[in-house]
User: Fold these one by one.
Assistant:
Number 1:
Amino acid sequence: MGRSAVAIAAGCAVVACVASAMMVGRRARRWRGWSRVVRVLEEFEESCATPVGRLRQVVDAMVVEMHAGLASEGGSKLKMLLTYVDTLPTGNEEGIYYALDLGGTNFRVLRVKLGGQPSAVIGCEIDEQPIPEQLMTSTSEELFDYIAATLKDFVDRENETSEPSRGGGRELGFTFSFPVKQTSLSSGTLIRWTKRFSIEDMVGRDVSQSLQQEMSLKGLNMRVSALINDTVGTLALGRYHDEDTVAAVIIGTGTNACYLERADAIIKCQGLFSNSGGMVVNMEWGNFWSSHLPRTKFDVDLDADSQNPNDQGFEKMISGMYLGDIVRRVMLQMSQESDVFGPASSKLHEPFILRTPLMAAMHEDDSPDLREVARILRDILEIPDVPLNVRKLVVKVCDVVTCRAARLVAAGIVGILKKIGRDGSGGITSAKMKPLRQDRIKRTVVAIEGGLYTNYTMFREYLNEAMEQILGEDITPHVIIKITEDGSGIGAALLAASRASSSAVGAL
Ligand code: BGC
């Protein structure tokens, strides 16, 4: 069975189970308000619907917003940020480079040894730790003190025989995965925080300078030679291994994409200097918005209760930080309209208690009696003794949320491909076009990183299935979505290396 067939079969199985559960429920009349719960589910499912026609509207809206964001500063909710990355790694980079990766749930320090042979990472040491929760809302001084201290520990623990990178000093690539207005490849100011971070005094300040200051205070002889977004690191690593890579997408705690754009298409920066005639653009697509997005009242409430209302609308429908919480909100409404979950559990009122990995575990529970679902409901949400048909109902809610998210990501990716003329449409996104000659269609690789795609099978299946539906069977085989693990870390080291060595640059 093909991947999409598996996804469809799984989806149908869930629907069938829930339908039979509903019948049982109607017959049993044991619970007060079962029919109201069914209605909540039906309405929710309907308002999350993403038929292919709607996805194509999202594709087109994405293209329109990309043009608007490139035309003028503030022209769109899509910021389309310049990265000053006009050359990407070629595979010839050589030496030892460091990288810091800040932006998701964990903070990582890396030391990467590049072999100089075509695309050989011959050594990579990684130190990874969860970011202490309180630092996400503390002061910039505390945050950068922590980062520099962790980096210093890492360097101090280095093997005596470690050679420094070319040129003697230590070159550092800093992946800072938030919207940054770059002023050069190695500097830029924070526009605003996203995800769980909110440190007011940092907004508007230069990110590299803040790190550089703390590093000097700690006596670290390192230079931030590249300040990048995680999407850009992923694109760099993708390109290092495969020269057909043209875009990168992250679907983790947050979501975003970047791609290679022609310099002359970046109208808002006429006369932009570029060695290669192109530049990587950080779209910040988490903030994309369109009236074609299927928004529910649960999304509206989640947004209103969030740290950043009216921002990151696309991200709030898609990324790992939010999916579990949408499920919790639907379950809360069900519990308020009926007693299917038994006596009200106060845990259902707790924001973010149902983390997305738990939601994925419920969604993918394939035990006949949905044991994992029962365990999570009991242990995390303090809802014990949930009957099987109610567990199936919960699985269905997870399915609806994940299916919508994955299909919207697919539409976003096709939007990028369409903007750069790689969706095979020649301007029209339709699977019904006259087929192009297969030998004229360029192979196109999109690098992807983030737990939702790499660890969550159902999410991946739904995304791939939607790509096929939108692109059609002629184009689909030419578009490769490639998992590019560690791109946000290794990619930063690669870009530091590209910067350090002018011989290591390649045209875009
Ligand atoms: C940030 C992006 C980042 C993405 C994935 C979003 O919240 O705004 O800069 O690339 O998360 O980490």
Number 2:
Amino acid sequence: MLNAKITGTGSYLPEKIVSNKDFESFLDTSDEWIFARTGIKQRHVIADNETSSSMAEIAATRAMQAAGVVANDIDLIIVATSSPDRVFPSTACLLQARLKINDCAAFDVQAACSGFIYALGIAHQFIKAGGAKKALVIGSEANSRILDYSDRSTCVIFGDGSGAVVLEASEEVGILSTHLHSDGEYQDLLYINNPIKDQKQHGEQAFMRMQGNDVYKVAVKTLGRIVDETLESNGLRKSDVDWLIPHQANIRIISSVAKRLEMPMSKVVVTIENQGNTSSASVPLALDLAVRDGRIKKGEIVLMEAFGGGFVWGSALVKM
Ligand code: ACO
């Protein structure tokens, strides 16, 4: 059976930064409230001429450069996004055209904030089965396009960005395991309605809606369980994990998972303060940051986890 290894990472954050203070001028909120409840200080927001696919193009190009592969080596593109450029064609197809890659399989995965973990899990299965040799796996989100800027309980939390990895068939062990779960019973706690249907029936634009407090409670419990599941299925101890790369939803959720792993926060890659919650892009953005600044080294064991609307949750244990 073939192994799948991450051979390159890349990311992109839009130039424009919106600080917590910027919200104070038009919302009943404060820098103090946002930082204390979430750990967020600022987030990046795309320009009018940017989209999920334009950000993905930059992140993917950087990942391919890091891996030493060219666009036409790629035989599979999976983009995780809940804020696609179009309903269809998929953002993966639009990215394929931007990268001028001919003929490979390209599709989107919609698993909200867990999208990148889902995409990585799917690409891993493709490679293990011999269905692909060099895959681009991307999380890309233009969250600012799906937020209601009069709803203080959501709009202060999310940011835009894109993160990518190249996953290659390899003799060496790379991805140790991925674990994907969902429970659609929770669909009404975090959702965006169908924009086409809503506009037609109610003349309303569809925006993200979240019962944050209820989501928080389930997220903490569920992520604790998936950490245990991931370690048990690999026969590893907590101390075998070198780095935790959590989905960046809330610093309090991140800290609770680190505590479950008995891991000091110095071993957790945290980007939420500067990036906010970039949904499916948050894990690959954090991974790229820690690879490029030299924190994560070859051979180290990284635990990635995420939780999002659905609910969907998952983890990936990776030897870098
Ligand atoms: N500024 C000031 N007050 C606010 C704001 C704001 N931006 N937003 C909400 N409030 C108010 C509420 O109206 C409420 O007021 P009330 O007591 O008068 O009713 C009060 O603050 C407390 O609200 P809660 O929702 O209970 O606040 P909480 O401490 O739970 O923090 C938060 C909210 C940050 C959203 C938190 O619940 C959270 O992080 N939830 C998890 C989010 C998550 O993990 N999502 C999954 C991934 S995202 C995805 O899949 C797309």
